[in-house]
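Section 5: illustrative case.
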């Protein structure tokens, strides 16, 4: 097994185990954190968990690509799994991990009670917190640096990312409608106009992070990106 394949195996196992541990062993008593109690959604209430599952699936795809796909920069024929790998990183894995990680730690730095109350500490291990909110960024940035990923058009990429985020926004509103409780404490302290502003800012930040990822990919792989552009023109 090559170093890259071994790395992908470790990354995939890391996130699958984090999801497994979170789902099965992190049980916060109702009196400590009563979020969305009327829906049996488990950890699927949280964007953090959605993202961790996505990262686990993404690095599994990366692992499989080492064996049934190709990691060549510009293969003559690009296997289906390679196209999936590139699209998932560009439209979801990179922008979503940056969004989750940066938004979590930014709010945490301002007032952790708005995003991750101190009362959760006895139930949510530090290593798991970093797996879910720190390593998600580190691992996907390493992947961006190590391998070239062909981005879709910006219109397609942003649309896919925003569609994913819209689905999650609808989901947390369904949970609130059913339970009367917002998934994240910060939403409890915001009135309706401020929640609209909050969601609007979140959308803008998400689009910015998508474009940032696109620019980072272009910066790291400038010669390849320019070569591919010339090919498409011809």
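Designed sequence:
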């Amino acid at each position: 097994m090559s170093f890259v394949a071994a790395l992908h195996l470790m990354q995939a196992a890391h996130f699958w185990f984090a999801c497994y541990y979170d789902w099965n062993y992190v049980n916060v008593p109702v009196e400590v954190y009563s979020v969305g109690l009327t829906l049996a959604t488990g950890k699927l209430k949280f964007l953090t968990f959605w993202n961790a599952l996505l990262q686990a699936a993404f690095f599994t795809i990366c692992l499989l690509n080492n064996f049934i796909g190709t990691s060549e920069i510009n293969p003559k024929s690009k296997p289906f799994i390679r196209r999936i790998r590139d699209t998932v990183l560009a439209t979801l894995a990179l922008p979503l991990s940056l969004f989750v990680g940066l938004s979590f730690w930014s709010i945490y730095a301002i007032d952790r009670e708005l995003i991750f109350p101190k009362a959760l500490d006895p139930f949510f291990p530090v290593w798991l917190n970093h797996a879910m909110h720190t390593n998600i960024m580190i691992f996907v940035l390493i992947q961006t640096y190590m391998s070239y990923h062909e981005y879709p058009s910006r219109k397609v990429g942003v649309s896919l990312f925003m569609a994913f985020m819209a689905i999650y926004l609808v989901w947390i509103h369904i949970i609130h409608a059913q339970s009367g409780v917002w998934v994240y404490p910060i939403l409890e302290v915001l009135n309706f106009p401020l929640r609209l502003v909050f969601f609007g800012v979140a959308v803008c930040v998400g689009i910015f992070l998508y474009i940032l990822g696109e620019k980072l990919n272009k910066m790291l792989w400038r010669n390849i990106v320019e070569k591919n552009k010339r090919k498409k023109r011809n």
